[in-house]
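Postdoc handover notes: sequence design on the structure in folder B. Input tokens:
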């Protein structure tokens, strides 16, 4: 049973998730190439910049949905998609930044540095992106093994980076702030869920007694029995 679930996650769902991750990029490429009469509108540079930023933020939030989904459905294999989703968020945001630097600003580093210093929404966006760099660099299984519990702590930076991404979005919107507020609401919901689940956990004292007997953790599903049978690629 576990083996068929494992195969479903690995050979069917994972490729589908990968396709979903690439879809916004495909949409942009089709718009640039004018496939089937598609176009990026009157301002393609702005459209590309915005699409990359928006999908970077979408994927950050989708990545944060993995743990609640696993807890709600009890289906442990959600975790198999987390690294792919997190890295997709990072690459869209790196693309967003590089597109801004190379195309929007013509690779004028001085202008970029001035922007970071003078425009608060750029400062905040840049800080968010910088926080994601160590997370992307330590997303390998070797880094997870090397860092152990510290990996988990380090990767909590994703909450701060997503919050900064929402602030960045809110600040750059000129009139209608409804959409960035929906993003704040989604983030609040996801963080609220985690806080609530943490509160519902047994106290630290009880937890350490339990852990001594059987190591079980929400964030370390590979220590759970199901994951002992499903060793490959458990973490983002
Ligand atoms: C965590 C990092 C970041 C996230 C989540 C993010 C996300 C976003 C989002 C959602 C938008 C609005 C898209 C829309 O209106 O549809 C946006 C716009 C923008 N972002 Fe970012 N961004 C990040 C980092 C950066 C960085 C590092 C830069 C440049 C240094 C940057 C420059 C811009 C610019 C110039 C715009 C368009 C502003 C305008 O049209 O006036 N962003 N970003």
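Designed sequence:
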């Amino acid at each position: 049973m576990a083996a068929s679930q494992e195969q479903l996650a690995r050979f069917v769902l994972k490729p589908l998730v990968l396709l979903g991750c690439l879809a916004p990029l495909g949409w942009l490429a089709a718009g640039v190439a004018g496939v089937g009469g598609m176009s990026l509108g009157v301002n393609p540079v702005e459209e590309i910049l915005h699409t990359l930023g928006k999908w970077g933020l979408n994927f950050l939030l989708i990545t944060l949905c993995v743990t609640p989904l696993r807890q709600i459905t009890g289906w442990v294999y959600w975790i198999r998609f987390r690294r792919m989703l997190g890295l997709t968020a990072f690459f869209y945001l790196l693309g967003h930044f590089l597109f801004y630097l190379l195309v929007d600003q013509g690779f004028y580093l001085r202008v970029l540095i001035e922007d970071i210093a003078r425009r608060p929404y750029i400062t905040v966006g840049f800080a968010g992106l910088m926080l994601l760099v160590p997370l992307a660099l330590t997303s390998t299984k070797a880094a997870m093994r090397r860092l152990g519990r510290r990996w988990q702590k380090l990767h909590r930076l994703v909450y701060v980076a997503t919050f900064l991404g929402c602030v960045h979005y809110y600040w750059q919107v000129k009139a209608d702030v409804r959409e960035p507020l929906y993003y704040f609401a989604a983030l609040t919901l996801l963080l609220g869920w985690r806080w609530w689940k943490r509160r519902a956990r047994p106290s630290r004292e009880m937890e350490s007694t339990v852990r001594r007997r059987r190591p079980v953790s929400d964030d370390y599903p590979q220590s759970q029995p199901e994951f002992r049978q499903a060793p490959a690629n458990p973490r983002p």
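Context for whoever picks this up: The chain has one domain: 2-199+215-228. Don't rerun without checking with the PI first.
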